[in-house]
Amino acid sequence: MIIGITNVSHLHQLERLTIKPVLSILLMVGTLSPQAADSLDFEMPVFSFTPKVFHHPDRVFFNTRAFELEVFAEFPEESIRSVSLFYKTDTMPRYIEFPFDPEEKRFVFRYDPREKPAKKITYFFSVGLKNGSLYATPVDTTGNLSPITKYLLDPREYFKKRASLRN
User: Fold this and answer.
1) How many Å apart are CA 69 and CA 110, to the nearest integer?
2) Averaged pLDDT, 64-69
3) Does residue 141 belong to any structural domain of this protein?
4) Containing H/E element for 54?
5) Domain holding 156: CATH number?
6) Among 148, 166, 158, which residue's Cα sits nearest to residue 62?
7) Would you call the peptide bond into 34 cis, given omega within 30 degrees of 0 as the criterion?
8) Is the pLDDT of residue 78 over 50?
9) Does residue 85 contact residue 71 with C-beta atoms inside 8 Å?
10) Separation of alpha carbons 118 and 2, rounded Å
11) Which residues constitute the domain of residue 38?
12) What pTM value is reported for the model?
């Protein structure tokens, strides 16, 4: 009577041991590398989320146009104590908290680089609940906070480079 099958080959175990660390290192390097100042990012940004708080960053931010940073919180309205954006630019050494009204349905912050000039912006969102829980986004695969850094690009230079890459 056969109850189970045992794999006697050690090659299968060796493959699993070497592929897993290499894959995790590649993922870590890919997620930790910030956007270069002159890079052209034509890919869609990663949809960063925790199970109940999520944010989808724009593909590119321009230094001549206002843009919105928006977060969604999937909690009952009565359980939310606070929703905040923390951001800083290269001209500000510390994060600034922008609190949203927890009664609102949409949590949006509008940043105008013409009013507050900067070369880059770094930001993350947090949601505090009345039971003391605190959630934030974006987070990495280990659950640690991983703020988004985006460079504010000159639209003329951006579209020139983009057109030259298409030809």
Assistant:
1) 6
2) 93
3) yes
4) strand 53-55
5) 2.60.40.2470
6) 158
7) no
8) yes
9) yes
10) 69
11) 31-166
12) 0.66
Tens of pLDDT, residues 6-34: 334 444 444 444 445 544 444 444 444 44
Domain total in the chain? 1
Measured distance CA(99)–CA(96) in Å, rounded: 10
pLDDT at residue number 40 = 52
Q: Answer whether residue 152 is part of any domain.
A: yes
Q: Which helix (H) or strand (E) segment is 81 a member of?
A: strand 80-89
Cβ(151)–Cβ(119) under 8 Å?
yes
Instruction: Quote the CA–CA distance of 48 and 153 in Å, as a whole number.
Output: 22
23 CB-side CA count, 13 A:
7
**Token pair listed for 87:** 């951001």
| E-only strand ranges, 112-160 | 120-129, 134-137, 148-153
φ, ψ for residue 90 (rounded to 5)?
-70, -15
Q: Are strands 61-62 and 148-153 parallel, antiparallel or unpaired?
A: parallel
**Of 3 and 79, which is predicted with more confidence?**
79
For 88, list phi and psi in degrees, rounded to 5. -150, 160
Taking Cα atoms as reference points, which of 82, 159, 93 lies closest to residue 126? 82
Confirm whether 36 is domain-assigned.
Answer: yes
At 19, the amino acid letter reads I
